Model the fold of this input.
Amino acid sequence: MMWDFVKDRQFYARQFIGAGSCSDVMSYSDSNQGRVIAVGFDNGIVRILLVGSHDFMILKAFKAHDTKVVKVKYSPDNAMFVTASEDGEIFFF
Done:
């Protein structure tokens, strides 16, 4: 769900398989314009989403872990991406 905190209303929502457990926004660049977000889910899936004006578009989805994803994080220069799971696994991309 995309929520506007200033206007206190929902922009839009989209249903995914699994419950979202963590997220991180990619650092702003001319190419992504601050609209790319990574979301980890309780089923081990990570989805990279583009925030559009009316919906989320899936740029990439992959099963990173067998357990809940507890952390996703982009490096400040967007050159690296890391995921961590509930059972202690860490993957660098």
